[in-house]
Structures are given as C-alpha cells and as structure tokens.
Design a protein that fits this description.
The complex is a heterodimer of chains A (about 300) and B (about 250). Chain A is an alpha/beta fold and about 300 residues long. Chain A folds into 2 domains: about 1-210, P-loop containing nucleotide triphosphate hydrolases (Rossmann fold, 3-Layer(aba) Sandwich), CATH 3.40.50; about 220-275, no CATH class. Chain A is built from 13 helices and 13 strands. In chain A, the strands form 3 sheets. A 6-stranded mixed sheet of chain A has the order 5-6-7-3-8-9, with helices on both faces. In chain A, α3 (about 90-100) packs across α4 (about 105-115), α3 runs parallel beside α6 (about 130-145) and α4 (about 105-115) crosses α6. Chain A is elongated, with a radius of gyration of 22 Å. Chain B is mainly α. Chain B has one domain. Chain B has helices spanning about 15-25, 30-50, 60-90, 90-100, 100-135, 145-170, 170-190, 195-200, 205, 210-215, 220-245. Classes of the chains: A alpha/beta (about 300), B mainly alpha (about 250). Chain B: Keywords: Membrane, Transmembrane, Transmembrane helix.
C-alpha cells in the first residue's frame, strides 16, 4: 500500500511537484505517467526519503519511509538503473545490498535467475552492461528483500520488446501475489500494457487519474467502415458526436450505439472498439507538447 | 505474501551497515589498487633504504618511520574515497534507500576507513619488521608511546580525509584539498611572521610531530586537540550536516 497525500516540492519559485495525492492498493499496478521533467522522479524520491518534501507526505504500508524497519525487506526501490559503481560486478552490487538487507547469498543467485542475468553476465563489471542489463540488475536489487511494495522509476527504459514483455509478466505476477507496484514512464504504451490504474502528471500536477479502462473509455469509440463518410453522416443524424481520426472515426458513444446504427443502415464495419488509446495518447501528447521544450520551440 | 509490516526499529542494524561499507571499500579495482599502491610505496621505500641507506639508521624505529611516511599522505585518500563514493557514482540512491538514517551510514564509513587504515598500517609495520630482520640493525627500539602516537596520528589523518570527503562530496576536489590546503597553510604560517603563533596551534603537521616521536607533553595535547578540532572535527561536522540534509539524486 502506498498513500500519497498533498505531496509538494518547491525549489525556490519553481514547483516541481504540486499537491499530488493518490493511492496504490495492494494487488494493483499503478502507472505514473508524464513527460520528462513532469515531476515523477522527484515525487518518487520524496516517497523514499531521499528528498524532503516541502509539504505533504507519503506512507508505505502505513509508515513513512524513514520509519520502516529494514526498508529493503518491505519496499523494493529502483530510481536509476545507471546509478551503480561501474567497477563492481552485477553480482557484487547485489551481494553488498544483501549484506545491508540481511538476506543470503543464495537469494542473490535467485534474483539473478529471476531477472534473467546469466552467470557470466553477473560476473561482468557494470561498466560493460547495456542499459537493458542495468535495468534487470536494478529490478533484481529491488526484488532482493522480497518486498511487498515496488517503486520503479522508468524500469522499461532501455529494455527491448522481449524485455518489456518479460517485465510486464513479472510485475503482473508480483501484483497478483498481493504486491503493490508503482512504476513511472514517459511512454504511454509501455505503461498501458501492464498498469491497472494510471496517474498522469504534467508540470507537477495530476492531470488525469483513474483505472486504465475508465481512462481509455474516455477516448470514446473508434470505428472504421467501408464507407466512413456515410457512417459519419448517419451518426450525426442520430445526434451522436463524431470526429474524423486518421483512419476511421472517433465517436463519443458506447460501441453498442455505433454498432446498432451501422447494422440498421447496413454499413459494413471493419473495426469497432471501445476507446483505444487514441484519446489518452492525444491527451498525453497535448500534455507533452505543453510542457516540453519542443512545445516551446513550436 | 503477508500484508503486515515488519515490526522493529527503523532502518537496519549498524553491524550490517558497517559490513556493507567495509565491503564497498575493497570490492572495486580502484579501492583495491589504493591499498596495493600504499603497501607498495611502503615496501619500496623500505627496500631502498635497506639497500642504499645509512646502515646505522636502519633500526626498527627508523624503518617504521619511513614506512609510515607515504601512509600519512595516502591514508587520508582512503577516507576521502569512502566518504565521496555515494555521490560521485550516485550509489547513494541505493545506499540511502536501504538505510535512510544517513548519519549511521556516515559513521559506518568513518569506522570502515579507520579499520582499513589500521590494516594497512599493520602491514607497513610488518614490512618494517621484516626489513629490520633482513637488513636493519636488528634493534627493536619502538616504544609504546611511539607506537601509540603513530597509530593515533595516522588515524587523525584518515579521519581528516573522511571529513574533507564529506565536506566537498567530490573525490578530486576533496583529495586535492586534503593534500594541498594543510601544506599551503603550513607554508603561510612559516612565511608570515604574524601567523607563526597561530601556526603552532593550528598546524596539523606540526602538532602531530611530537606524536610520531612519542614525546607528547603538556601543551602538546592541547595543540593537537585544537588543530584536530579545526582541521578534522569542523569539516566533519559541516560535511555530516550536508550529507544529512542534501537531496540524493
């Protein structure tokens, strides 16, 4: 369980995190989504006691991070996979952490196997690791103490598609076993696949929050037919708001409503689905454009 | 998976933090090389002295003095590296998440650096003993005062390294400062006559002289404490405050 209440961080006149509140329940994966510089990492550092909040706070399993007994056994944290001494081997990184957490060397070998780092790879120095391997090592370190809560900052960054698939399975199993997962990303599709709930932030504020299905449904219904022009006019006649998307239409109604009209008027549908990520993607892109440097330049 | 929180005091037991910090000091090439270089420097100086030096000075005391000469300069670097590692390599993101009570990590680092220094010193003394047997005068003329004084002086230097490391949280800056600043100060106090009096009290190199020679008396202790307070405790206090309050990124 992670509870975040009115968490705020100001640096001088700049507000990096602006009064955010949300909860991550056991058994669920929450995607913390936002463009670069939105305040995700700052928020996660505040949750783990590395950055003092200006106001508000966070509790994990009912306690603030600094109150936790042996935090490594309760909360698995990976904030930056690249923040490792390049001269240590992957196995040594985990062994040092194991000493601090108080778990056995056998557990180190267990998590190495769990994240798919081979014996040879574990013996290599981190300097020679690819970003994907560093991510696996970071996830191994987070899992080392068999925690109940995972806080992962951009864990999919640098993973190949197969690696992302693997991580999705790993986090799903962790949550299905009663674990609590908060993971951040600046890529919508990455998070969309694995998360149950989404918290979207931009410029330090929460701009959208809710279950993934609910947020996706806000995107309306996507429909594509052999004759989109006719379908659009039929929908308009039925007083259903409709907009043209790249290939097809986005309709602000349930798929059933659209399907019935199409069936009645014998329009051949090629595709009909709830929401799709377009709405969310658009919102996310809008957010990115509004807050990113590219947006300023445009 | 249980849903109850682990009961117990915040953080982890200090013994585990200390073990982890000790391990981190010797599990990288740079850490191991530091120790090899220090041992090699002591060994080379000893070998050179035994072969070419004046034979009558090659007593145990003379050889221990020689072997510890490079250590006085190099041991503080162990302290610096222990203190700065979390920040230069950003491993603090892991270390301070596993033990959020940073003061304990700082204490563990200081103790680990001191322990490692004692090991290096023991090796240097063993090498001096060997040199004494092989090519020295064979006199065992190190008094308890000299032995204790040497250990204390070197440990003060190591702690100074830790203090400067914590103060700057940057390895090169801290190493240069710990080597150069005391020397600059030392030159200033001898060159500028008005600083001479201050220098007698606030020059760590001068006040540890009697300590190495095993003839500490009266005011010497007061001078040592004063110098150590300014050159070690003050940066240690400011540096620790910095580490406790700094944002870990």
């Amino acid at each position: 369980m992670i509870t975040i209440e009115n968490l705020t961080k100001r640096y001088g006149g700049f507000t990096a995190v602006d009064d955010i509140s949300f909860e991550v329940r056991p058994g669920s994966v929450v995607g913390f989504l936002g463009p670069n510089g939105a305040g995700k990492s700052t928020a996660m550092r505040m949750m783990t006691g590395l950055t003092p909040p200006t106001s508000g706070g966070a509790t994990l399993l009912g306690q603030t991070y600094r109150e936790l007994h042996n935090p490594g056994r309760q909360v698995g944290v990976m904030l930056d996979a690249s923040a490792q001494h390049p001269g240590r081997t992957g196995r040594e990184v985990l062994r040092v952490a194991a000493v601090s957490i108080g778990v056995s060397r056998a557990r180190v070998e267990e998590v190495l196997a769990l994240v798919g780092l081979s014996d040879e790879e574990a013996g290599r120095r981190v300097r020679n690791y690819s970003l994907g391997m560093r991510q696996r090592l970071g996830i191994a370190a987070a899992l080392l103490g068999e925690p109940q809560v995972l806080i992962l900052d951009e864990p999919a960054n640098g993973l190949d598609p197969q690696g992302i698939h693997w991580m999705r399975g790993l986090l799903r199993r962790f949550a299905d076993g009663g674990g609590t997962v908060l993971l951040s990303s600046h890529l919508l599709h990455e998070v969309q696949i694995v998360a149950d709930d989404l918290v979207m932030i931009g410029r330090g504020r929460i701009v959208a929050m809710g279950s993934k299905d609910e947020l996706l449904a806000r995107g309306g219904t996507t429909v594509r037919s052999t004759d989109d022009v006719r379908l659009a006019s039929l929908l308009e006649q039925a007083d259903v708001p409709v907009t043209r998307a790249g290939s097809g239409l986005v309709v602000d109604a349930e798929p059933g409503v659209v399907g019935r009209i199409a069936a009645d008027e014998r329009v051949v549908l090629l595709e009909l689905r709830s929401g799709g990520s377009e709405g969310l993607e658009e919102m996310f892109l809008g957010l990115t454009a509004a807050t990113s440097r590219e947006g300023d330049a445009a | 998976m249980s849903t109850a929180t682990l009961e117990g005091r915040p953080g982890v037991p200090f013994s585990r933090t200390l073990r982890a910090e000790l391990r981190k000091m010797v599990d990288t090439r740079s850490g191991r090389w530091m120790i090899v270089v220090m041992a090699a420097a002591a060994a080379l100086i000893l070998a050179g002295f035994v072969i070419w030096g004046p034979a009558e000075d090659a007593s145990f005391r003379g050889l221990v003095g020689l072997a510890t000469l490079p250590l006085a300069m190099l041991l503080p670097i162990i302290g610096v590296m222990a203190a700065t590692a979390e920040w230069s390599q950003r491993t603090g993101l892991v270390t301070f998440v596993l033990e959020p009570r940073r003061g304990r990590v700082v204490l563990a680092k200081a103790l680990a650096a001191l322990a490692l220094a004692v090991v290096v010193l023991a090796a240097a003394v063993a090498a001096a003993a060997l040199a004494n047997v092989v090519g020295g005068t064979g006199e065992w003329d190190v008094s308890a005062a000299i032995a204790g004084g040497t250990v204390l002086a070197l440990l003060v230097y190591v702690l100074q390294g830790v203090a400067f490391g914590l103060l700057f949280l940057n390895t090169p800056v801290a190493i240069v400062s710990v080597l150069v600043l005391p020397t600059v100060w030392s030159i200033a106090t001898t060159a500028i006559s008005s600083l001479e009096d201050v220098g007698r009290w606030l020059n760590l190199d001068t006040v540890t002289g009697p300590l190495f020679e095993g003839r500490m008396a009266g005011e010497d202790w007061a001078r040592l404490v004063t110098s150590a307070a300014v050159w070690v405790l003050l940066p240690l206090a400011i540096g620790t405050y910095r580490v406790l309050h700094r944002e870990v990124k």
